[in-house]
């Protein structure tokens, strides 16, 4: 029996066309690719994305630090976890997780454990999300970070882990990164 695991592979790219590219961290392009061993070519849209880090922060009372935030593309106010883009050159996912916990929620954590890394929707987006479990929380200063736009309307709430798990299973909270983090924390016996 072969080992069950994803494999890196790159099919030949015949041509690439930028459909949108600006100073922000994401871009949309159309690649024409060729299937190996065939003359067949076809186009695929690719949303370039630098990746992200997500933090499931658990306090001493087994409560998860959650945020409620409006997300315009979905037209929803989601229960989420602190998270952010890997948008600075050379910044490691754990560094992003630490930064986002401090900037978005005004907390730091003494203990960090990786949960997993996943691709959001690999048929169209190159985003890879890195998940972390954080404990031993203490209040922290945001530094010079200023909450703007949707973040300026964020609400912080503490949710008992078991209640959050029940909401995930019931389908009451549907933010993909939150669902993955909660299920991974439970599967690994961390919460």
Tell me what the structure shows:
This protein has 191 residues and is α+β, with helices and mostly antiparallel strands. It folds into two domains: 13-48, no CATH class; 52-187, Nucleoside Triphosphate Pyrophosphohydrolase (Alpha-Beta Complex). Helices cover 18% and strands 41% of the residues. The chain contains three helices and ten strands, in the order E-E-E-E-E-E-E-H-E-E-E-H-H. The protein has helices at 93-105, 161-170, 176-187, and strands at residues 13-21, 27-34, 41-48, 52-57, 63-71, 76-80, 83-85, 107-119, 128-139, 155-160. The chain has a four-stranded mixed β-sheet, sandwiched between helices. A hairpin with a 5-residue loop joins strand 1 (13-21) and strand 2. Helix 2 crosses helix 3. 21% of the residues are buried. The model has no long low-confidence stretch (mean pLDDT 93).
Query: Strand percentage, roughly?
Result: 35-45%
Secondary-structure element series:
EEEEEEEHEEEHH
Show unreliable segments.
none
Instruction: Describe the global form.
Output: globular
Please outline what is shown here.
It is built from 3 helices and 10 strands, in the order βββββββαβββαα.
Could you give the topology of this structure?
Elements: E1 13-21, E2 27-34, E3 41-48, E4 52-57, E5 63-71, E6 76-80, E7 83-85, H1 93-105, E8 107-119, E9 128-139, E10 155-160, H2 161-170, H3 176-187
Parallel strand pairs: 4-9
Antiparallel strand pairs: 1-2, 2-3, 4-7, 5-6, 5-10, 8-9
Helix pairs in contact: 2-3
């Amino acid at each position: 029996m072969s080992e069950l695991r994803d494999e890196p592979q790159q099919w030949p790219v015949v041509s690439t066309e930028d459909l949108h590219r600006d100073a922000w961290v994401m871009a949309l392009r159309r690649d024409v690719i060729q299937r190996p061993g065939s003359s067949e070519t076809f186009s695929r849209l690719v949303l370039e994305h630098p990746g992200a880090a997500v933090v499931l922060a658990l306090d001493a009372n087994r409560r998860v630090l959650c945020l409620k935030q409006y997300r315009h593309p979905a037209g929803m106010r989601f229960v989420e976890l602190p998270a952010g883009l890997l948008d600075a050159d050379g910044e490691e996912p754990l560094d992003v997780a630490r930064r986002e916990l401090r900037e978005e929620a005004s907390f730091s954590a003494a203990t960090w454990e990786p949960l997993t890394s996943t691709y959001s929707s690999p048929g169209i987006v190159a985003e890879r999300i890195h998940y972390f479990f954080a404990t031993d929380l203490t209040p922290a200063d945001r530094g010079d970070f200023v909450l703007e736009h949707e973040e300026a309307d964020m609400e912080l709430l503490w949710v008992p882990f078991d209640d959050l798990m029940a909401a995930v299973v019931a389908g009451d909270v549907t933010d993909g990164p939150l669902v993955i983090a909660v299920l991974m924390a439970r599967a690994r016996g961390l919460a």
